[in-house]
Design a protein that fits this description.
This protein is 19% helix and 30% strand. The chain contains 1 helix and 7 strands; from the N terminus they run βββββαββ. The strands form 2 sheets. The protein has a 5-stranded antiparallel β-sheet with strand order 3-4-5-7-6, covered by helices on one side. It has a two-stranded antiparallel ribbon with strand order 1-2.
């Protein structure tokens, strides 16, 4: 089922993980392969507007998605990013979200 995300409509093909309070989508402007967004189901602009249950749900989802992305994309690590407010770089202020991004480092063997 498609989901509205600010001025964007995320198609069912972009969505891949759902919980009681959040869902995950491929990022509409990925920085690296596997860049995902974890999005609150409730439309609020800030992390501080979410209940404790919603925050816990969102970050457990971020951890679970990050694990799968790291394994699937053979990444060496995962970056979790939170932008809360326009001055932090948040570009979709009507729906709180955070990011899971696989990290790719080349290992040098001496």
């Amino acid at each position: 089922m498609a989901q509205k995300f600010g001025k964007y409509m995320l198609s069912a093909e972009q969505l891949f993980y759902w919980t009681k309070h959040s869902y995950a989508s491929v990022n509409i402007a990925p920085v690296v392969p596997g860049h995902a967004m974890l999005i609150s189901r409730r439309s609020v602009p800030s992390l501080s507007d979410l209940s404790d249950e919603e925050v816990a749900d969102l970050f457990v989802a971020a951890r679970n998605v990050g694990r799968v992305l790291q394994q699937h994309f053979e990444a060496t690590a995962v970056t979790y990013a939170v932008q809360d407010g326009a001055d932090s770089g948040q570009t979709v202020p009507v729906r709180y979200h955070c990011y899971s991004r696989p990290v790719y480092c080349q290992r040098v063997v001496a």
